[in-house]
Predict the structure.
Amino acid sequence: MHKHTIALVGAALLAGLPACVNLDEDVVTGLTPGSYGTQPVFESLVNASYEPLRSFYAQERGFTVTEFGTDIFTKGADGSYKYINDYTTQLNPTAQFVQDTWVDFYRAINTTNAAIDQAPVVVMDSALKARRVAEARFLRALYYFDLVQMYGPVTLALHETKSPTTEATRAPVDSVYDAIVADLQYAESTLPAVQKDYGRATKGAAQHLLAKVYLTRIRDADSTADELAKRQAGDFANAADYAQRVINSGQYALLPRFKDVFDFANERNQEVIWSIQFTTDPLTTGPGNSGHLYFLAQYDVWPGMTRDVANGRPFKRFRPTWYLLGLFDRTKDSRYDAQFTRVWYANNAANIPKDAQGVPKFGLGDTAVYVSTTDADTVLARTKPYTVFTPRAYLGQASPYRDNMFPSLNKFDDPFRSSINETRGSRDFFVARLAETYLIAAEALMRDGRPAEGLPYINAVRRRAAIPGHETEMELTVDQLTLDAILDERARELAGEITRWFDLVRTHSLLSRVRLYNPDAKNNIKPFHVLRPIPQIQIDRTSIPYPQNPGY
Amino acid sequence: MWQVRRRAALGCCSASNAIPAWRFVPSSTHFPAVLLTLIALLPLQIARAQETGTIAGVVRAQATGAPLWDTRVTVAGTRFSARADSAGRYAMSDVPPGTYRVQAQIIGYALGEVMGVVVTAGQTTTADFQLTQLAVALQEIVVVGYGTQVRRDVTGSVASVGTDDVHEVPKVNVIEAIKGRVPGVDIVTTGNKPGDGIRVRLRGERSLKASNDPLYVLDGIPMAGGVGDLNPRDIESIEVLKDASATAIYGSRGANGVVLITTRKGRAGATNVTYDSYAGYQAPLRRVPLFNGPEFAEYRREAERARNNYKCAPGVAVCDSADAKLFGPDGTLAALQAGRWTDWQDLVLQEGAQVSNEIGVTGGSDQTHFALTAGQLKQRGIVKAQDFERRSMRLNFDHELSPRLRVGSSTSLIRTEQNVGRGDPVYTEALTNNPLGMAFDSTGAILFKPTPDGQRVNPLSDIQNWTDDRIRTRLFGTLFAGYDLTPALSWRVNFGADLTFSRRGQFRGAQTQQWQGSSSDAAMWESKTFAYTLDNILTFRRNLGTDHRVDATALYSIQQERTERDSMQVTGLPYEHQKFFDLGSGLKPDWLGSGLAAWALQSFMARVNYTFKDRYLLTVSSRVDGSSRLAPGQKYGMFPSVALAWRLSEEPFIRGSGLFSDLKLRASYGRTGNTAIDPYQTEGSLTRTMYSFLDQPAVGFRPGRLPNPDLRWEKTGQFDVGLEFTAVNNRLSGSIDYYRANTSDLIMDRQLPPTTGYSSILENVGATRNTGVEVALSTLLVQDWHGMRWNVEVNAAANRNRIVRLSSGLLSDPGNKWFVGYPISVAYDYQFGGIWQIQDSISGEAQRYGRRPGQIRVVDQNGDGKIDQNDRIILGTTFPKWTTSMTSRLDCKGLDLSVMAVARLGFLVQDSLRNGGQSTLAGRYNNIYVNYWTPTNPSNTEPRPNAAQENPDYGGIRGYGEGSFIKVRTITVGYTITGGRLRWMRARSLRIYASALDPFMFTQFRGLDPESALNSGVPSYRTLMMGVTLGI
């Protein structure tokens, strides 16, 4: 027995003697900063620099902070961010979208910085490397451009954060713009006119953005002084120059018909200079283009109607103001009918109303809901079997339908989603399209004191928008070319395209126009609202004072 | 201590080699190998048996004279030992001649000693023992980590729940067995679907970011996965280690307390077969009160009135045209006029059921013991298409190869399957559906869309077409070998492996809320986890003279775990009956993923229990843990503890009074850690992003997390003082504990300014404190009165929790609802101030705040005339001030009746039915039944319905309220028959019982159940069951 015991104990000892445990970690799933410096990681940092675009453009966040609280859109029935339209006290340093935009864009900037910082050590084809750095700098400029427009003086970080720090300061607006211009000039001179991968930044995109930056750069809070300072600094001339470079590049052309620009089947068209990419592949489309949700009225609760994929999921967030609807001369301008849906056709036999004999009053595919543009149609409402909403019904303060029914902007409609509730649309979102470049050129030349030179640019856009046969009637004369005319034209052409709030601020017309045309915001808006509040978390987490924008 | 060591060295040469156990230097990683090599040499010292004699005798209980089987008899200062057989007889041969002191020791009895036993060569010397029985509470054997102790010797705060209590009422989850049994343990359910989990908190919460779950140890092996898979019937006892002296031996994982679970073992003697079976039915404790058809219609009219779209006044019957306009489009007019409506809640509920069958065989010989169990539990949920099944097998086996060497194994194989369908939301769907909609068409088929509402579908359709199956297969096995190197020194090797396969499959057909007829999708998640633990334990147990006892333990342990995961989801299934078993046929993949994570832990532990005169007890322990999860240089942490106990009852001045059979004062202090962080947290990481160029994927990586090489353990220093007593002829026993636990180096996200590109970095910042009192009392009110015995136990605990420090010196972190000086979990919100009334509008007060009559009034805390984020206040904490429970057990001639009631008092809970989704008051969805405001009904509790908004403004602040409740947890009546009356069926014993679980609840809370961690979704339920236990 003893021998057995000894043998057993010996065996147990050997088995029980643990091997030395390796306490070092080996990351298999995922990458760590230790993998910087190779071409694939460098390229993936550049790819990652594009992704945050999708957190703002074509999302509720971007639409809300740039279309709400302007002269052309106001709040609909639903949604949690009405205060951004109304400029109430809830629009404060803790407001969600104000904070998220800040956080995501600075995260994006850190990503671009990481790519730019490590470029010198990456071994790869130098021309390709320069192009990728130019893309990163283009994107960094775009993020800073949006930040400086929204928040004014902001922290200017041009290198990757390597260790935790709680110190941050606000750089003067001028130095932020200087950095933006430097980045864009590098991008403009380095980027090719056409990229092998469609959707990467191009020379044209950089020129378009640079033109817009020069046009936007605010040099004085006072509008008259600002105009003078910008003209003296050559900003307008520069803006016009870069816009003309795009127009004259031969790469782009206005499509013959306005409606075709937003043709779902032709989203990669000649007018698009640069767009944010979305696909039908759920693996690559991220949050998708969700613009199809927010501008749509509640079409689906009326007799003969039910919700379906083709008509969309009505979030009824953004309701066009009467001012916007009235901007169109509907006899000449095709853009009213082209971009607003006002008729819905019966798609639900079950709830089509029946007459006394039990015969349906209309059939599938017949008009079921009609949003009229004139109060004269009240008569129609009594004679037609379908549901009619007149302006009194959808604009009257006391109207029960006011927030639910309205002409619905359809630029982002997406009838090809996989299901009714699918929010991820696959449309590309146009950040730079040639019609805007034309309007930038017209505005820059006009403000530079050369209205006659600018006139053909705005008229090119207006002629294109004309109902066939009315082209000449659409043309403006030099006398008619005013800043207001340009703003109105931008409203007609670019409604919903995440530019309006920026346009109003840069032209010092936010307050005046909101007070005139936005019934929900006019009583609340104050001069300080031309800047968004610095997010409270930025102030709270910075160990040195980080000043808030005045008024908040 | 030094004296002990010297004596040990003199008394036993071999033991001196083991002494380094409490002298080792933690930083030396070579220590265990050296020690084990030394020990390996020990068995070679074989006693030379030449001219020897024998010591033999009988061990009996003094009171009854009954033989005491399995008593261990040793010759003091030698390696000689023996165990008494079933007749109490023992014999030790080959004892060299001399004069010896012989000792007999068995749990439950005082140490017996015969002095001056003279052994002569070739002779047998007799040494008989009469052992005195100790008080019931004292003889109890308690599992403490890495060993066992007799209750009276325990210096820490350890609560024990024995077999009887564990099995008194059938449970689904093992941990429910300690619910209400141990003061300071707070258990709440995290869901009411069959197979859902529970949340356990010992002495409050201390960690903000890391886990607050205790460490579970099964048969000595720390479990990597949860305990929800275990079959409660396999459990012998559960010990809860609460103070730092008890948990410090688990070092970096001890901060949240430790729950030790011991499974059933076999015993020598006749083979016992036990058959357990019970069946019960379950019904919701409460239902959600909803508007019925006519009430819904009126509420909807009011919502339309609020936006001027319904002109008919309330109470006017003739409003046909207005009703036609309102209810015509969605086809509910006919139902309204006919007074017909659907109770959707009723349609998704069903009678729940729970059935369990289990067979156990235990037995063994003197050398070999075994226990074999197999069982099946099935539960059918109270919501349709939700069920749970657990099948389990366990074999416990141990064998004594020689008097010195024992080997054994404990293995269980468990398979659980939880089917939840759409889960909690299916219930919500039922609550939200329009009662005027019809569930079935004229042919009896399910109507997918009861109304044209784009957001609502028939919940019955979800029940049919939405599958979510979670299967876990778990193999948990331990192997051990124990070897007595000398009578005083034994060595044990434990190896435990935990293998878990889990698979979750989800299928959502076209006719579901998700897809609304347009497509379908299916997804699969799989993970495989392999974890193992290898322990080497040396135990040294000796009496040194009559006054000193030493019990020392040294441990070297390693643990490793590796998990592999994969997952995928596809959309557009060409045929639905595949569920999720033909993902390749899907139109397109939605996502794909896989991952690998591994961690390792290396530990050294030493513990010494020293007892002087059976009166003064000292425990000193220390554990050193090295973890792969921390960065180089920070990997090792040390967790020491010290405890002192004074058995006052052994002092003459107490003993003289005869009042206390045991009175013990104990105090301890120790430091423990919290494993806290997930693997790879210190290294920093890049986050994967996805973009596309045209339709080509563009995978990216961006800086995701800053590395922090300085991350350390969270540490908790806990002080505990307690008093334990047994008095009045053992009829009253109890304990009182006071503790204070300071947790520092709290792992938290230290917030960074977003301009850095990061929002936070994981750092050791912040501190929390838990202070509390625990009282446990057990009294035998009636000991034997006409065969009746009545026992009552009462437990109570109070815990005060607060945050002492937050990151960067912040005093508050409203985003996370953390405030210095307040508990970890508080409700921080606007205060509901009733409803704006018409007179507030006349006085202009409402307009000042931009409000109209009928809207929710928010308390303007700072009185600045506007409501903004500065008006949020801390409304209360979700931790109870008190938890208490009472158990009464009455036995009389085979009949038993037990009742347990628990209470959780003084905490705030928000009724999630009221604060949001189930009370939108927009006239669109059905609503919980509330007394809403109308111009003629000036309610002050709920706002006016309004069809022009999705939710009432500030609607989320409704429903906060006191959550205090008293619940009758169980009522059980049983009858046990033993002996002759069962001879005809060849059975040993038979017990028949009926139980009611959670039959009654008393509370002011208006929601479903204040006890559930989430009080929405599937309601909690009560169970009525009958069962039988047959022993053969």
